[in-house]
Amino acid sequence: MYLSMGNIGSNAQVGFLFMDFERPFRLRAQGAAEISAAPELLAHYKEAELVVRVTVSELWMNCPRYIHRYQRLKTSRYVPQAETETPACEWKRVDAVQDVLRAGEHEQVERAGGVIPVEDWIARVQAGDETA
């Protein structure tokens, strides 16, 4: 998210908590982040606009006792895949956000079915609609 890029620009120190809900297992990492738009890095990540590189300074296992066990059923349709076009995020179709979309996103909204009222999107999210 661009908010995270602004935070990194102000303070490069970052912390990550990686969790495996199937085992359970938890790994903690601390380090210094650097933002890059270098084409040779962007080429590794479909649809990426920026890459964050982290130089890890500390890494340790973290106690997993409070991790609830979950099973991964499938990958979100919004995760970029080399062989398919990533669908537009459904919240970008909401009428109240149309004035803040970036160039090109209005075309994605139209291809996805056009603008919708916020109440429709909220109802879909609350119903568990995996396309919402």
Radius of gyration, CA atoms, in whole angstroms: 18 Å
Please name the CATH architecture of the largest domain. Answer: Roll
List SSEs in N-to-C order. Answer: HEEHEHH
Mean residue pLDDT: 92
Q: How many strands?
A: 3
The figure for the number of domains is 2
CATH classification class of the largest domain: Mainly Beta
Q: Provide the spatial order of strands within the biggest beta sheet.
A: 1-2-3
Overall morphology:
globular
| Share in β-strands | 15-25%
State the helical fraction.
10-25%
Question: According to CATH, what is the topology of the largest domain?
Answer: Pnp Oxidase, Chain A
- The CATH superfamily of the largest domain turns out to be Electron Transport, Fmn-binding Protein, Chain A
Which structural class best describes the helix and strand composition?
Answer: alpha+beta
Describe, in plain words, how this protein is organized in 3D.
The protein has 4 helices and 3 strands, in the order αββαβαα. The protein is globular, with a radius of gyration of 18 Å. The mean pLDDT is 92. It has helices spanning 2-10, 39-42, 105-111, 118-126; strands at residues 13-20, 25-36, 51-61. Strand 1 (13-20) and strand 2 form a beta hairpin. A 3-stranded antiparallel sheet has the order 1-2-3, with helices on one face. The chain folds into 2 domains: 2-61, Pnp Oxidase, Chain A, CATH 2.30.110; 90-126, no CATH class. The two termini are 19 Å apart. The protein is α+β, with helices and mostly antiparallel strands and 132 residues long.
